[in-house]
Amino acid sequence: MRLDLLPRARPSPWLDLLSPALAFLAAVLIGGVAVAALGVSPVQAFVTYFVAPLSELWSIQEVALKAAPLALIATGLAFCYRANLWNIGAEGQFVVGGLAGGCVAIATQGSQGFGSQGFTGWILPAMLAAGTLAGIAFAMIPALLRVKLGVSEILTSLMLVYVAQLLLDYMVRGPLRDPNGFNFPQSVSFDDAARLPALFEGESLHAGVPIALFGIGLGALVLARTLFGFEVRAVGASPRAAGFAGFSDARLTLGVFAISGGAAGLAGICEVAGRIGQLQPEISPGYGFTAIIVAFLGRLSPPGILLAALVIALTTIGGEGAQIDLKLPLDLTRAFQGLLLGLVLGADVLTRYHVRLVPGGPAAKAAS
């Protein structure tokens, strides 16, 4: 016996819309069984994971601060994945973006700015531009290797993550280390002119969140309303037909990698100039890899990606609370996120295809 997937003649739009919610409900039920097996009340765990992070202002801000870089990176990655290209190295592009923008902040440390009034307003835009351009440049390496030499972008983009992490580690332990930092591997703290301003006085929410929202909106506009967005969608739907239409595979590869690398680099410098305020050996908790999950949870659509990023950020903050309050392992949160991704992808398959059992398979062929 084997399983065959047959396309549905008319997939239900309502079922397609509801399938992510049903997948989330199934993940919660399965997670509740796992929590009960660990001796914790599923109701108490549900409240800690999904209700408590939304009950206080500081935790809501933390959810937004974690969701913003995830959604921005995932929106960039959606361009690659829609075009059947696989950028797995967003983590490295995030790190390089933070490093490049941080170098601008360090180089201007203590600067009095331009003119008699000491204008320093150019520093932060220069940092954001440097981070974005560095992410683009780093993403061009696997893109050019694919275009010119046919090298798999999956391997090259992934391996470059380690190059970026080791480069950052070397820089903060060597050339960029704070000489007055008691030999700790970190740079000097950035000046106020090199920090993203807080949106509200005394709160942790900073300007990186609206920057991310702008990037997500711009990504949605490009995908839906431009010729390049149509080209991305066309190649993803039918590469052969797109080739007959005259779309350039090389140009598309360079374009989508530039967008995804730029988005990751921008997210990196926003993280460094926002929450961290200096360069250190670790500037990412794995945003570049988690964003891959977010992209597919959001069905490679910017609005869906934003919602998926909020869900992942919510479960991350809730998982940290569950680890403290309920003594649940943090790995349970990662397992839940992976389970959620699997269920959403499975639900998408079932809404678009019929599953049919067909007699036969290797054993039957051997017998005949």
UniProtKB/TrEMBL annotation:
Protein name stated in the entry: Nucleoside ABC transporter membrane protein
Gene Ontology CC terms: plasma membrane
Highest taxon listed in the record's lineage: Bacteria
Membrane-crossing residue ranges in chain numbering: 21-43, 63-81, 93-110, 122-145, 154-172, 207-228, 249-269, 289-314
GO function terms (MF aspect): transmembrane transporter activity
Subcellular location field: Cell membrane
Entry keyword set: Cell membrane, Membrane, Transmembrane, Transmembrane helix
Zinc-finger keyword on record: no
Chief location category: membrane
